[in-house]
Structures are given as structure tokens and as C-alpha cells.
Amino acid sequence: MRGLIFFTLLASLGLIWTVSAGEPNRINSLNRRRPRPPQMQLRQNAFLGNENIDFQQARGLQPIASPSAQIHAPFEPPVTAEKIKTAIADAAFYLRSQQQPDGSIESGYVQGGSTALATLALLASGAHPTSDPAAAKALEWLLKLETDNTYVVGIRANVWEYALRKAPYEARFREALKRDFDWLLEARNEEGWRYSKTSSDWDNSCTQYGVLGLWAGARAGLKVDDAVWAALWRHFKAHQNKDGGWGYVHSSGSSANMATAGLASLFLIFDMRHSQSVYSRSAPNPFTEGEAAEVLAALERGMRWLGEHEGEKGQAYYLYGIERTGVASGRRYFGGDDWFAGGALHALSSQTASGSIPLGYSDVIGTALSTLFLVYGGAPVAFQKLEHGADWNLNPRDLANLTRALWSAYERPLNWHTVGLDDPLEAFEAPILLISGAAALKLDDGEVKRLRGYLHKGGLILAQPSDNSPAFKASAEALAARLFGPSAPLKVIEADHPIYTVLKHDWQRRPKLRGVTEGGRALFLIADDDLSGAWQRNDVEGDAFKLAMNLLFYATDLRALEGRFTSRMPRTPAMTPKDGQRRMARIIYGSGSSWDLAAAAWEVSLAYALHATGQRWVERPPVRLTTKALQGLDLIHITGDEPLQLSAAEIKALTGYLKGGGVLLIDAFGGAAPFAEAARATLTRALSAPKPLAPDHPFTLGQFKGGVDLSTGLRMTLSARRRLRAEGRAVDAHHLEAILDEAGRPMVIFSPYDLSAARAGVALYRGEGYLPDAALQIVTHALAYLDRG
Amino acid sequence: MRALLLILCCTHAALAGPLLLPGDLKGAAPPKGAPPQILFSHAQAQIEGGVAKSTLTETLKGEGAFALLLPLSPSDEVKGCALGGVALKGRVLKPKAASALLTKLGKARQDTRLLSFVHQRLYVVDQLTLKGEAILKIDLEQPLSSQDGFSTYQGVMSAPQFAQGVIERARFTATIQGAAPIRAVFSDTHALTVKRPSPTRVEVSYTKAGLEEGADLRLSFVEDADPLGLRFLTHREAGAPGYFLLLGNPSGGGDEAQAPKKTLILAVDASGSMRGEKWEQALSAMSYILDHLGGEDRFNVITFGTEVRAFTPQPQPKTPQAIAAAKAHLDALIPVGRTNISEALRVALAGEPGDAPRVVIFLTDGTPTAGEQDPKAILKDLKAINTAQAQVFALGVGDDVNPQLLDRVAEDTGGRALYVSEEEALDTQIAALYDRLSHPALSEVKLDFGGASVSQIHPEALGALFQGEDLIALGRFEGEGVHSVTVRGMRGGAPRAFTLKAQLPKATDSRHQFIPALWAARRIGDLLAKIRLQGPEPKWIEEVVTLSHRYGIVTEYTRFIAEEEISAEEANRRASDLMGAARQRASGRWAVQQSVNEANLRGKLSNDNADNAYFDRRGVRTKAKSKIIGKRAFYKRGDRWVQSQDAKNKPAKRRVVKRFSPEYMELIKKDQAFSEAQQLDAPVTVFSGDELIEVR
Question: Which of A38, A498, A667, B122 has its CA at 20 to 30 Å from residue B537's CA atom?
């Protein structure tokens, strides 16, 4: 198949051979279209800016990319967001290094194809179309390129569309897009596309790039006649094989590459054809009857085929295809396989020292396709949609449209995922979980517990009734009671709530919300109006989109969203685990749920501590402050956001525990002042007033394994910095206080600034505390201090 | 200003200690066992009245018996030494006895590094025993070398190169309590953080994680009631122009009771890309600035997206109502649109020069995408539009800025450019910048060297000096004699002048061997900035390569020098190509890192090997593969360290010397610089006089 793809790419040149990966010299030596004079060669090698450049070689006719050029360190598993970011940066660097003085980034394939792909990859990796010299030059070259090739035109149309997003005032890009768009319309035959305008037949590879190109035009506002989309739908419908996949040409057997071609194209076609359809109770079947239903069924069959047949992750063409399919579908898994995780591992493992990622193609094309895969596939997941019951997806493209529209607000791609109730808790990774439906929600206790776990790790649930369904609303209210207790009030979210004010909008009709607030944040919301319909209809200027943007900023405290595989673990190698273990527990107090806000904090924290120190800590079940319950615990933790009140018996048990050598870590969740003030008063009455630690106290100095320098480099939230700056205090140092025992050892470590929400993954809007990395370091520091005895 | 007479400062290259050697000091055979690990190290000093009370605390981990050796400066006194709280008994050897002991030990252990201490006194503990982890604590009393208010303290730091592994975290903290205000404070060996809680008290600190090699810390400071506390230090070698370092610091009280008034313009990017956390941070910073304006200050706020909006047509006085209205105005804004930098500059710089200097804080996260978009055209008009004669302090946020544009705007207006990465706290950086700007000590600073023949002075233009900042100028001089050096500037609209008498030595003056490398770093930084902003002049490129090679100062464009021996022509060509590639990047992370690297070189105050690094195109800190010992640069060639050579120091003779041979020991005894070079961890090829010695 790989050979066939190459064959088809090169057929228009009349050059027919097969090339396998890892033969750049052969490709370049056969590139008779563009002989390079030696001086230019030397210049190109020198542009690499690499170590170990073989300058002797550079004086002869040699490939642009010297095999000995080394800018990229070998990948070591596991895949992390940081390594993906590095891989993208190095791949982009490689692509730039291949640029000729005329701006092209060719690699011996169809003229213009490599440059178009490479330019798209550069733009996707962050290059600005006008201020980045390499991108600007490549765009200039593409503007002048005349071509009769569907691949080139289709990709180039996407280049213009992307460039226009960043530089919407550039009329020449808009004109160029219109030209390519018109070309594609003219080149299309009844079925689809083949290599050029004069082709009368079709194949699904060219056709998918033709669809991509048209879609780029449509996104930029060019009108595609509905008949065109209809014809394309008929084509993919007619040529979907019985097994659900698609082949290359008529009667070809299904292949993974072509399955992604069909699926990715069908998603686009669906969005174009059915963008105004929306579920309502009076017209409940826009997506379950008629053509829309057929398309969705075809998509479902295709995705099932894909799930049953492993694609070639080691091939860049497939990676780009699966990425477009995965992103469009919102699926994290195909057949139980996390498509991005597998593909990223391949891409990162294959990246060469020069930064290229050939993966079955020329260095430039493979690198460009792989870069696009990594950029879009690894984009942060902003929303997830819960699969529940039969009506979870009444507006199937609501979140797809929403995340696409929010790209501009975040100036980077965003993704959405579907997630099921039997998926592990780690799969619930987006800041916002949408639960949508018309019928009443039916969730068992285990499923409710799963949702509770999601809330504990910082998630926000938005329950939205499709077409204002009363049954769904009532069941959402019941769910709130199950999540938060029967007495938890669902209150109206007022107009001055940060959800509405975090970004200022001129609301036409502000969408109403009711919600439960816990731990200082509104974390379970019920929409009174149907938001999903507006998202489904792509009403991007409307209030539903504005609200979604605000929710995202609110739920993340305006911080940048993190890409897939963001890791909080230390970057240093893991310590060898020591023998033995220590025990800690969270303390239950009062009758509310304030004590439980940090439920998700310790799992992360103890894993971090194990990595950093080798010491195993075990979290025992939460206990109340009784002498018996505290026995055997090395550390206890109290947090909350409401005033801490302990009974006399509890204080007695606590003081006994501390005097017996135990340690209390106590922090105000989110920096909540009521808790901090009451805690300070309670501690003062019970023991003595907590005081700042001396700079030369062994705890502060941190000269032990797992210790950190507490005097500097500890990042805090903006709200904390604002307060500290106003008070003239350091904004990047610790603000811990302690009560020391007779030996001068801290038996109480008190933090008026948050250490718990951060570790749990809760981005509390306007919370005052440490950012997650600092919070993990400080708590690990405290655990390590205890460990040294 | 009193005439300056300098006394001998500590001249030897900073060599660290204590050393813990396995075994004892008696045996002739190499001992068994490994040295201990130094897990953590903390060196502290309280400096007052010309004396430092120092403590070095090391957390050690090891098993077995060890001998402790601690090299001492001539007047250091060990007040106590304890391991795990138990006092250790030690003795002090004078240099001759120390030399004999170290020679014996060096030969027995085949370790030439021990010979790098032969010229010093030695504190010795013959034997101590380690079982696992224990804390070693050494208390010292160290008189400072001082003359005419210029004092130098030599702090003992840990030596992980003689231990196992690296030090997980090494710290140095010191307090300096002066009788007079403390002016310039710097270390030529370590990059310090300096805090000034009061005019006569300074707190310095240094932290390094993963320390592989230690060197003693040299801390110098000036106590002077004079408002600038100027000092003039020199270094000269026979037959060559000398180097000077002029330093001063307006901090520490004096006549700066009230900050002069200013007109502050906040010009803030409000384009769509600022939406979210960046805007929140910028708002927080602007609120801080508005709250901390001086009583007589005037201000205005300009925000720019596609359109430019000024809060008021003209700057207005700071009143509670005006501040509240400005904050409300900012709170109501929604970042949207493109980035009209040209128009924002035009509005911010318009007006008449008043009786108060105009300072513009210009914040952007992007490149010009509205209005005039060609950076060259923007810069061309800059002088003409700056009718208010404003200084622009440009803050670039993130990687999408155009540093070439922002650097030039800052430079051409006498301001500065600063870059804040997306990961850093923008509000903290802006607040810190404003805190400095709000206390100008001197503006339009110019240097007058009287009749002295000076050249290649860096920085070329001093601009303004702010409270808490050092005035540092380095340059070359010829001739000799005493000359008046004057620092002139404006303060509160009135001219001020500060003069000192500077002695230009005639003959060799090697008391401050660190000066040439510091000068070279700043010269390289200036040249790189010129190349980036003005174009690649071959003579500038050549000079960068030569200086980089000679002083071991690695840059992104000359790093290959540390790795391989190539001809000067080849080196120039490679550097030129690399600079050309870099110069093409007008925006993006690499462009920002170039500006950051240049700023770091131009602000370098220490020759700390650990600090000899640059940020590569991805922002990754990349360390040099060179070593600087004293004023010498060494490069690893194969299995040995080779001192840099160029046209200026071609050896007259070459000689191979076997280590521990009589010839070798003679060199150790007679040539202190030769002995100090033995501290490297591999055989060395090093100059002794004009002879190149290859030690085998």
C-alpha cells in the first residue's frame, strides 16, 4: 500500500518507482527538477545551525540535511506533553532548515506538495504567516506556484485558510484561497477527485484532500453549493465497503489509510450538510432519520472497522488521517486503542537527530504530516461529553463546533472527547464534562461515584437539557442531590458571578444557570436553556458560545490549558523505593463536606513523593480526631474552606497525637480566609500560635532528599501574588507557619495559602495558593522532612 | 572623592574545599575506598567590621575513615570543626608544610588536583569516621581584605569535584552590615542575588542545584557615604592595554530621599491574543503601578488592539479619582483585535518634553499586525514621533514578539527591553520593573575619563541609573597615571557629577584578573546585538569568535570552538552562517532567546563556570564545554584540558612534563597559576610564562 501511495503521488511526473523510508539520498539524487549549485548547498548546510555539521561534505553536492546534523536528543519513554512540544519544535526547525532561498521546501515529490505540507506544519506549530520569515517566504513561493495537482491545491487551500486566521487582513491569501477553491470545484467530477483537472476518474486519497480543500474555503466563508456536498456524500456512501471500510479506488478492499480518508471526509461533509439541523422535542429525529442518520450510521460502521483493524502508526500518511478522524469524531479510542498515544509514541520514537520524522515518506513530507498529527492530536481536551443512556448525543456535533470556535479564544487548537461511565477516572481529563439529554438521567451509585471523583480532581459538570427538557432537568437536580447530599442547595448563578464576568460580553439573553458551589467554586451546573442546540447550529456569535468560553476560563482560572500527557511528576529520575511505609490520613470534622475537598490531592501527592524520595506513603481512610483513630498515623491532614471548629475532645485527641510525635499539615483550601482564620485561632488555643519558620531552620533549609529551597522559586496563583505584593511580601517564596515541639521540630505545618486544591487539580477561580508544581514540591518537602526522623 | 589606593586582594583562582580524602595522611600507597558524597551544602557568613564569621555546613554520606583538608587564605582562622555534633581536633599547616603534605598525598594518590592548593595554608583533621549520613560543620573567622572602603571576602564553598556525585543543592547566604551605606556589591566568581533591606545592610544569596564543581566565592563590596561610592579597578599585563572596571551604586541612602517626579505612560497590548491569563496578569500589574505612582507623577494609560485608545488625551496628575477611573477603564476593556504597535508608539511618545522625564512601559505579546507593519518603517519614524523625549521600557511577553523591533525601540529611546516567557509571572516582572523605574537615581548618565586614553567601553550608552542598580562600565585603557573619572547625569532636573581619582597602572597589575573576561563577555554581548540589529559585519564576527575563544565565553554561535580545533577562518565562517540563520528569525522563541542571551552577556558580573551558558533556540539552558580558571580558558581536547591559544599568545616553546617529576614540582612551586590549573579533572596543557607545558 505504501508503494502504491508513492506511485500515485509521483505518477503525474511520469516517474515511477518505489521508495522506502530512510533513503533521502536516493530521493535527492533522483530529483532532476532542481539541481542545486554547490554554493547554495553550503549555505543551506550552514543554515542548520547544528552541532557537528560536516562542513567538508557541504562543499560538494550533498543532501540538504546532513545525516550527522544533531539537534534532537533521542526520545526516552514515556510520552509527555513536554516531549511532544520539543518534538514539534525540532520538527519545525528541521522543516525550516530545508527551505531553499526561493522559499520552497521541496523534497522531490509533486512540485509544491512538500512545500504546502511543510508550510501548513510550520503554521500549525506556531509560525506567524507574515512575521515569521520562513513561513512568509514559503507563502510567497506558494502564491506564485502554478499547479494542476489535487493534493497540492487541497493542501494549499488549507494553508491559506490557516494563514487567514492569523492574518485576516491579508487580501492576497484570501484571493489565493478563492483561486484554489474554484480550481477544486472545477476539478471535481461526479464522484470526487483524481490527480488533476483533466482526470475523469477518482480515488479516495485525492478525494479526501479535495474535500479538505473545499472545507478550508467553506471555513473561510466561501460558499459551497449544497449539491456538491450531497454528491460527495453519495460517493462515500456508494463506495463504503460492506465491512464498513473504504478502499483506494472502486472495488478496492478496505485499508486503514482509506478508512480514515472516508471517515475524515464524511465528518466534514456531515458538518457542511447538516449544520442547521438540531434536535428538538417537537422534531426529535433530525439525526435519527433521513440522510443525517445514514451518514452517522456510515461513520459508525467506518469507525467500527477502524477499531477492528490496526492502522500503520509507523506511517505518516496514516497518522495524519487518524488524527483528522480522531479529532473530528471526539473519540479517544478506536477499538480500545488510544490512537493519539500510539501514534505519538511512534512519531517520537522515530524522530531523528536532525529533527525529521520521516515515518515512511521523504523527510519533509513525513515530518510535516507527523507535526500536524502531534499538534492537533495532542491539543488540550477542553470538553468531554458523557455517554449515558440512549439520548446522550442528540446533537452530535455540538462540542465539535464549540471547540473549533474556541480555538480563536485560546489561539491554539482544542479538542473534545466523548467519555463513558465505564472509562477509568484518568480518562475524565477535560475541565468541563457535558451531560446532555432529553430523557431523565439514570445513573447507578458506581457511576455517580465516578462523577464525584471527577469533581474532586477539579472537573466541572454542566448538565444541559436538550430543548429544555423538564425530565432531564429534574433528573439533573436529583443527580445534584446524590452528588452533594440532599441538603446541598442548587442556587441561581447570579449575573455578577465570575462565570458571567470572567470575560465581559454583551449578552443578548444571558443563559441562565443554577448550580452547586463547593470549595469556593461552582462545580455542578444545570443550564436552564438548551445550549447544545446553539452549539450544534454553530451560532458562534450567540450567547451559548460566549457562555462556553467563559465556563472554560472560569474552570481553569484563566490558565493555559494543558496538552495531552501533561505530567506533574518530577523531571528527575525516580528514586529507588525504600523499604517500609508511612501512613497518613485526612481528618473528618464537622458535619459538612468541607473536610473532603482534597479527596483527590493525596493520590497525586504520594506518587510524587515516592518518585522524589523513594519513601512509600499510604493514605489511610479518612478518620475523625479520636485517640484511637490517630494511632499509627505519621501525618494527618486538615483542609477546608469553611471555619474550622473542633470540639474539646477533638482538640484533646489532636494535642495528644502531636505530643506523641505525630504531625499535622493544615492548609486553607483555595486560600479560604474563613478557614485560615479559624484554624489559626484553634491552633493558638490548643497549642500556641503558628509562626513563620526561621530561615535557618532545617525544615526551611531543605537540605534533605526531597527537600526544596523554600525561599525562592515557588510559583503562586495570580490572586495570591496580588495579595502578597500589596502586603510587600515575597511572591515566590513559601509562607508556611509552624508550631514547633520542644526539640524544635515542626509538629504543625500551617499554610494559609492553598496546598490542596492545586494538588488535586482544582483550578480555583481567584484562589489564593500555590500553583500545582509548587504545592507538590512543598508537601513532598514536608513528607521528606518527616522521613528523616 | 578620595584617591583610590588598592591593596593586594586575594589573587588566586578560587579553589574550593574542604576535601575529604579516604584513608589517612600517613600512607604512601593509594587508599581504598571512595570519597563521601556531599548531599547538601550551606555556606553562611555574617560580615561586619571587616571580619566575616562564616560557617560551612555539609551533609555528608559515606562509610569509613577520612582525612579532612581545608585550604585557608592567609588570615583565616578555624574556630571549630565538628562532625555529627562531635568536635574534631585539627591543626593548621603553614604553606611550606602544607605543600609537602599535599605533594606527598598527590603522588601517593596520583592526584594532581591536590597540588592546586600548595601555595595556601591548610587546616588538617588527620582522621574522622563516617557511618552513613552526618553533618560536618566548620566555623571560621575571616578578616576581609579592605582598602579605602573596597572589601573582599573569600567564602569557603564545598568541593564536590573531590567527592562522589554532585551536591543536590549548594547554597551561600551572607549578610553584610556596614557602618556606612553599602554601594556596589558583586561577586566575580558566582552569580549572586542581592537584597538591600536597609542602606547599611545587604543580604546576598546563591543557590545551585546539582553542583558538579565548586569554587570559593569571592564577594566584593564598597562601603561609602558618597552617593555613588565609585571605584575604579584595573588589570594590566605587560606590554598590552589594560582593562578597567568602574563601579558604583546609588543605593544606601544619601540624598535620594524623594524620588523625582515623572510622567508615566502605560502602553498595554489589548489585542485578542492577550485575552485570558495574560490580560489578568497585566491588569494586576497595572493596578499595582497605579497604586504606587509618586505624589507628583502624571500618568496616562494607552491600550492598543487594532485601534489605539488613550484613557485621557493628555497625561494627568495622580489623584484618587483619576486612579479609580483608570482602573475602571481597564477593568471594562475586552482584549480584541490585532496589534497596532506603530500607532501605540505614536500616541505614547507624543507631546512636549515637560519638567519631568517621560517613561513609557510598553507591553506587547505580538508583532505589528495593524497600522504600519514593517518594523523598519516603525523604527525609521521613531525619533521623529518621540517629541516627548520619552524612554521606552519594552516588555515582550511570550515568543510571538519581534525582539529586533522591541530592542531597537528601547535602545533608540534610552530605555531597555525585557522578555517574559509565557511560563513566568508577567505581573511580578512588571511590578519589579516599575519598582526600579520609580526610583531613578540618575538619568542621561555619561562618563568622562578626563585625559585618560580609554576605548571599547561597555555599555556604550549608560542611559539611566535606578536605585538598587549597579553602575558598571568596563573598558580598555592605555597610558598610565592618575586621572579624574567623572560620572555625570541629571537628577530632579539638575545636573550632578561624581568624580574619583583613577590610577592607571603602568606595569603589570594582576590583582583583579577577573576583569578581562567580564569585559569580553560584555563586548561579545554588544557585538552580537549589533550584528543582530544592524547586520553581520565581518570584523564584528571575527572579534566575537576571537574573544569567545580566548576567554572561554561560549555563545550559541561559537560553541563549536569548545568542541574541536579548527582554523580561525573556518570558525569565522561557521559563526557567520549560524548568526545569519539566527538573524532571519525576527520573532519566535529563538528570536527572543537571542535577545535574552545578549542581555545576559551584557549584564554578566561573574565568571562562574556554572553560569557560562546560553539559552538555545528552544529556550533550553546549554552549558559551555569550557572551563575558566582565573583568567585562562581551557577546552577539552580528547582526554586533556588545553588552554586557549590564539595569535596573541602563541607559545615560544613547548615542553612535555611528566607529572610529579622534579620539573613538574618545580613548576608547581614557582608558578601559582600553573598549580591552580592542576585542579582540572584531566591532564592539562597550560602556559607557564611563554612556554606551553603539556603535562602527562
Answer: A38
